[in-house]
Design a protein that fits this description.
Distance between the termini: 17 Å
Radius of gyration: 13 Å
Helix content: 25-40%
Strand content: 15-25%
Structural class: alpha+beta
Number of domains: 1
Shape: globular
Strand order of the largest sheet: 1-2-3-6
Order of helices and strands: EEEHEEEHHH
């Protein structure tokens, strides 16, 4: 299913494909990622994000698709900080992955 992570204040505009069976999420080429990565004690994934972005992100733009084992890991990659991917990623009507998986109707 096609999903989006958009944050106007930071200029993030990412699109992805979520596989409800495997729970993997592929962030699609052309997505605009956060400029900054949060280097804090609470967020231990900063170095991993930095390595994952190396060579495939140019001027905040993702140059090739990249697949993650979870929506949250994909959201962390996009936002550069700890992010609950089940809530951050939404479909075209604004429903979160969590709501879709739980069958919640809005």
């Amino acid at each position: 299913m096609k999903v989006y992570l958009i944050r106007d204040r930071s200029g993030i505009n990412a699109s992805g494909e979520f596989d409800a069976i495997t729970k993997a999420l592929t962030v699609l080429a052309g997505s605009i990622l956060s400029e900054k990565i949060a280097y804090t004690e609470k967020f231990r994934g900063a170095k991993t994000i930095e390595k994952a972005r190396d060579g495939i992100v140019v001027n905040r733009t993702l140059k090739k698709d990249i697949t993650f084992k979870s929506a949250s890991t994909a959201a962390n990659f996009v936002t550069g900080s700890s992010t609950n991917g089940l809530i951050a990623w939404k479909n075209e009507t604004g429903r979160t992955i969590k709501d879709i998986l739980m069958g919640v109707v809005k």
